[in-house]
Amino acid sequence: MRKIYSAHAIFIFLAVFAFLTFAASAGLAAKLPKDILVQASTDSFTTWDPSASYSTESVYMPNMYEPLIWVTPPGSDKLFEPGLAERWEASDDGLNWTFYIRKGVKFHDGGMLTAQVVKDSIERTMKMGKGAAFIFGPVKEIKVINDYAVQFVLKSAAPFDRIAASANAAWIISPNAVKKDREWFETGKEAGCGPYMLESYKPDEEIVFKRFDDYYKGWK
Fold it and tell me: CA-based, 20 to 30 A from 190: which of 42, 56, 62, 180?
């Protein structure tokens, strides 16, 4: 299981350009409190909308958002591990994939995770048809079985676990933001339930994340 070992309250990504070297960012980090982590990066955002993201945002999105399941690190016994779904199963013919959703997961804006939220979130991505939305091409229908079980009915058999664990397009967003348009996100807003919340954003300069104290996995 993925665990959050960092105790940092603030996580800052600094863009590295001609006027800001890695050495300079290291010097800045040395002057900051121990509960602030600074990481230099050459990657900037092309979109803040998790449904449309298909570029370098994959570096930042996992801080704010989570998918149903995660790909495990190399060398692990299993290829996938639980994310927002505690467990999942596929029918023998590979056409029906059922995910059992965690209870008590809170989003940064106070919304709560349910199977309906998962359905609405993925359907938003599919309807927009942007970024990596094509990965959901095999999906025929999404059914809410109960408050904490959602089923993906496929047009033909496919390894849907790989789709659900994608680093693009598979992020689940808050029910309070699922009807927001892309412009709402592009103002620097987010609607995830991951370990960090977006605190501030200066294009091509810095991205500051703040620890989400109510993160469902807790903090060490």
Answer: 42
Measured between alpha carbons, how far is 63 from 192 in angstroms, rounded to an integer? 9
What is the token pair recorded at 6?
A: 């960092």
CA 114/CA 19 separation, integer angstroms: 46
CATH class of residue range 10-211 = alpha beta
Hey, where are the domains in the chain?
A: 10-211
Q: Which of 189, 210, 201, 169 is nearest to 58 (CA)?
A: 169
Q: How many residues does the chain have?
A: 220
pTM to 2 decimal places: 0.85
Is residue 184 within 8 A of residue 200, CB to CB? The reply is no
Burial 145-179 (b: 16+ CB within 10 A, else e): eeebbbbbebeeebebbebbbbbbbbbbbbbebbe
Per-residue pLDDT of the chain (220 residues; tens, 9 = 90+): 454 445 456 655 555 443 444 445 555 556 677 778 777 777 677 899 999 988 888 888 999 999 999 999 999 999 999 999 999 999 999 999 999 999 999 999 999 999 999 999 999 999 999 999 999 999 999 999 999 999 999 999 999 999 999 999 999 999 999 999 999 999 889 999 999 999 998 888 888 999 999 999 999 7
Q: How far apart are CA 208 and CA 31, in angstroms?
A: 16
